[in-house]
Design a protein that fits this description.
There is one protein chain. With 345 residues, this protein is an alpha+beta fold. Among the domains are: 49 residues; 180 residues, Rossmann fold (3-Layer(aba) Sandwich), CATH 3.40.50.10480. The strands form 4 sheets. Strands 2, 3, 4, 5, 6, 7, 8, 9, 10, 11 and 16 form an 11-stranded mixed beta sheet that branches. A two-stranded parallel ribbon has the order 1-17. A two-stranded antiparallel sheet has the order 12-15. One of its GO terms (biological process) is maturation of 5.8S rRNA. InterPro entries: Brix, IMP4/RPF1. This is Brix-domain-containing protein.
């Protein structure tokens, strides 16, 4: 009816009047509904259960290519979260290491920004140690460092890579047998850059892994579980959260305080950063060997190592992957993102 009015001024007045009436009718409807729901809370619960908004998170489609061939033999897993670290079944199937020892290092020739970020990582992970990557150790690959760390009792290796004087990637290696994961690193904020941050204590924090629902997500989540002791120290009231949302892993660390028997407050400690999985490979990285004897300088100590083969020694992964070449169990490719609702973790 409004479009049939030829006079422009009259048409605008009628349109504004109809819009006001429509807005007032919706307001009256909300007020009446709120009054009814106040008397009967079950009406509100039923309304919220029926009117669920459709988002990318609740419409996500898990990417399980290696399960398609086994769908006829084995049923798909019905669980949507990682197994609890305190459950007896998980301890019997995959026993976790009682003590975690993490080695943190960098790529060769990094700047102060990467060293500051590594100091934050050492403060986050209990029983962790930072070792500078000397310039003379440029010839030694991550595989050599992984073998060196495995012989000295380390359970995990974290290598922070730098590009253009900014930390841009993290390589996480689970020792002594792998797997190895490569993450893109973005949105770094150190503790001193967070306004009103809390001070960290030496207590072992609690670990919360949220949103890891696929088989690949369970593998990545268990890799982060090995970085923390299985039994946290609740006296410190510290919690580390790794939240997976649309395949982006958001890292946060907080301290919680009980204001009353019903209210809990959170204060962020830091640091905060975001990870994006690029590839996952079973086994350790490639170790490069040389014929002549050479001294490996790590943490200021020199060790003489005799290398007999001049070729590269590669550890071939066991098991079947997802069809990716070069022994990769999974690798991100542009062709995989066929739908905005498909997620991998």
């Amino acid at each position: 009816m409004v479009l049939k009015i030829k006079n422009k001024v009259k048409r605008e007045q009628v349109f504004r009047k109809q819009r006001r009436e429509h807005t007032q009718a919706k307001l009256n409807q909300r007020v009446e509904r709120a009054a009814l729901e106040k008397k009967d809370p079950a009406l509100r619960a039923r309304r919220l259960a029926e009117n669920v908004p459709r988002t990318q998170d609740n419409m996500r489609e898990a990417y399980e290519p290696h399960r398609e061939s086994e769908a006829d033999d084995q049923p798909a897993a019905s669980t949507s979260k990682l197994p609890d670290s305190d459950s007896d079944e998980d301890d019997d199937q995959q026993p976790r290491t009682p003590s975690c020892k993490v080695l943190v290092t960098t790529s060769p020739k990094v700047t102060r920004a990467t060293y500051d970020f590594c100091e934050e990582l050492v403060a986050v992970f209990p029983d962790s140690e930072f070792v500078r990557r000397l310039r003379k150790s440029r010839a030694f690959s991550i595989g050599n460092i992984a073998n060196w760390a495995s012989k000295r009792g380390y359970t995990s290796l974290i290598v922070v890579n730098e590009d253009r004087k900014v930390p841009n990637a993290i390589t996480l290696v689970q020792l002594p047998d792998g797997p190895t994961a490569y993450f893109k690193l973005t949105s770094i904020e150190l503790t001193k850059q967070i306004f009103g941050h809390a001070r960290a204590s030496p207590h072992h924090p609690e670990l919360i892994l949220n949103g890891f629902v696929t088989t690949l997500g369970h593998t990545v989540g268990k890799m982060f579980q090995t970085l923390f002791p299985p039994l946290p120290e609740f006296e410190g009231r510290q919690v580390v959260t790794l939240h997976n949302q649309r395949d982006f892993l958001f890292f946060r660390r907080h301290r919680y305080a009980f204001r009353s028997t019903e209210k809990v407050a959170l204060q962020e400690i830091g640091p905060r950063f975001t990870l994006k999985l690029k590839w996952l490979k079973k086994g350790l990285p490639t170790a490069r060997m040389k014929e002549k004897e050479e001294k490996t300088e790590v943490d200021g100590t020199a060790e003489t190592s005799t290398e007999e083969s001049a070729a590269k020694v590669e550890l071939k992964p066991t098991g079947t992957g997802t069809g990716v070449d070069d022994g990769y169990e999974w690798m991100w490719k542009k062709e995989l993102e066929t739908s905005r609702r498909t997620f991998f973790l």
